[in-house]
Write a structure and sequence with these properties.
single chain, alpha/beta, seven-stranded mixed beta sheet, globular
Length: about 475
């Protein structure tokens, strides 16, 4: 019998009348049923969060830290079960799923140590002025399907640390590990502080427009981010938007080909390319283009595409059919336009599972769809460049501004280029490293606001300035 997962509302695990099916993208088999919530369940969750906010917002921060640390510990203790479940619903190989689950637990523990201290603006003979950060209230969290556990926990931890309460909606494609965590952490926080409800995409706008939700923290596509901004504008909800990206990696001629080939490969193909900050365009200096592109293609030859639960799989399936079809469409477009493939390109449409072979394209033009659009799949274009000015201009010629990377033997030169890239994050000689203590956020249509660090925590609060005139009554 298929397992029915329950939602967490007001400290209780609940079922609703209707359910949705969750598939394993490797087998296309149903592996779980989850509640399909609508306005009524959302109202109940928001009311519970509102009630809980009264006490939780006044609970000492050290007690709130302890709750987050407890949740982190519970996730770690159950990591084995959770990462297997994550692989079965998301598709990523076991080692990457393990990394996500432990990473989420570690990130929560690290974030629990953050503080928003009062700031003294003036302390003179006549006046004391102080800024304090006040939690905004009830938060609506909406997360995507590529890193469901990490994204959920990176919203819950800072929200409740700040003193807010939260109603979180996982993606309908990947709610299972999150709901299992809900079950495990049910009693870690007071009832109503954390509520997790599942539903179709149509539940999203109900959250965005709910009159008793004060803030939306969203991770997902730019298209949905725009809808959220529109919905949230009705009552001027606070919003944090972590959206899409089309990140450029720039490889300078002094890069060590042997050392960077494998790293460049994984910067694009981890999680089957379904990472907001994956390298989605790789620009290689013409002096080393042939050698490095051949070395990257060689790495690809030794990586197995398959079911993430099989030992040795490096690249799993695409998470869902819609995204699979989109990636196939981009490959077809490249074929129709006669672009050259170094590897891959032949998808078996009749096979079971949403598998796309590791596909590397050889120097497609800048206006090719595979270069201009976010592919979000295991398809990577390699492009040649001649001068630094030219490549900076090409890298910045994007509606997105999420992240980027520079690979070079000269780190000063790397930093000089990094400072000219119009993105929220730039790595020099590494990739995908995010710190719980540094703000992560996008420029341009990659979103606004930040997660992580003190900046991320501030997003769940507003600044209140209290000014006391010292001698007024004397
Ligand atoms: P998506 O926008 O389709 O869905 C994300 C979430 O929004 C889901 O929970 C979905 O149910 C919900 N949703 C759908 N329509 C909605 C609406 N009208 N109002 C409110 N909520 C709605 O994104 P996805 O396909 O799940 O994720 C892939 C995208 O996410 C990619 O573009 C990727 O780059 C981006 N992403 C960004 C980051 C980041 O931190 N910047 C991280 C991961 C993924």
């Amino acid at each position: 019998m298929t397992t029915l997962y329950r939602n967490l509302i007001d400290g209780e695990l609940v079922e609703t009348g209707t359910t949705m099916e969750v598939l394993n993208p490797a087998t296309e088999q149903v592996i779980g049923l989850v509640p399909s919530c609508g306005a009524d369940e959302l109202d109940r969750a928001v009311a519970a969060a509102r009630r809980a906010f009264k006490t939780w917002s006044k609970t000492p921060i050290d007690d709130r830290r302890a709750v987050i640390q407890k949740m982190s510990g519970i996730i770690k203790e159950n990591a084995d079960e959770l990462f297997r479940l994550l692989t079965s619903e998301q598709g990523k190989p076991h080692d990457q799923a393990k990394g996500e689950v432990y990473g989420a637990a570690g990130m929560m523990a690290a974030q629990s140590t953050l503080s928003l201290d009062d700031v003294i603006n003036e302390d003179s003979d006549t006046r004391l002025s102080r800024t304090r950060r006040v939690p905004v209230g009830v938060v609506g969290g909406i997360v995507p399907w590529n890193f469901p556990v990490m994204m959920a926990m990176q919203k819950i931890a800072p929200a409740i640390l700040s003193g807010c309460t939260i109603v979180l909606k996982p993606s309908p494609f990947t709610p299972l590990a999150t709901l299992r965590i809900a079950e495990l952490i049910k009693d870690a926080a007071p009832a109503g502080v954390v509520n997790i409800i599942t539903g179709e995409d149509s539940l999203g706008p109900l959250i965005t427009e709910h009159a008793d939700i004060d803030k939306i923290t969203f991770t997902g596509s730019t298209a949905t981010g725009k809808k959220i901004m529109e919905g949230a504008s009705k009552d001027l909800k606070r919003i944090t938007l972590e959206l899409g990206g089309n990140d450029a990696s720039i490889v300078l001629p002094d890069a060590n080909v042997e050392k960077v080939a494998e790293q460049l490969f994984w910067s694009s193909f981890s999680n089957a390319g379904q990472i907001c900050v994956a390298a989605k365009r790789i620009y290689i200096h013409e002096d080393i283009y042939d050698e490095l592109s051949a070395a990257i293609a060689e790495v690809a030859k030794n990586v197995k595409v398959g079911d993430g639960s099989d030992q040795g799989t490096g690249v799993g399936p695409i998470q869902n059919k819609k995204q699979f079809e989109r990636v196939c469409e981009l490959i077809e477009d490249a074929k129709e336009n006669g672009y050259k493939f170094l590897t891959g390109g032949d998808v078996d449409p009749s096979g079971t599972g949403y598998y796309v072979p590791i596909t590397i394209m050889d120097n497609p033009p800048e206006d090719a769809r595979i270069v201009a659009e976010e592919q979000f799949g295991p398809v990577m274009p390699l492009m040649k460049f001649a001068t630094t000015d030219e490549v900076i201009q090409r890298a910045n010629d994007s509606e997105y501004g999420l992240a980027g990377a520079v690979w070079t033997g000269d780190t000063d030169k790397g930093v000089e280029i990094a400072e000219q890239l119009e993105t929220g994050t730039v790595w020099v000689n590494e990739y995908l490293h995010l710190s719980p203590f540094a703000p992560f956020g996008g420029h341009k249509q990659s979103g606004f606001g930040a997660e992580y660090g003190v900046e991320g925590l501030k997003e769940f609060t507003y600044a209140q300035v209290i000014t006391v005139k010292k001698d007024a009554m004397i």
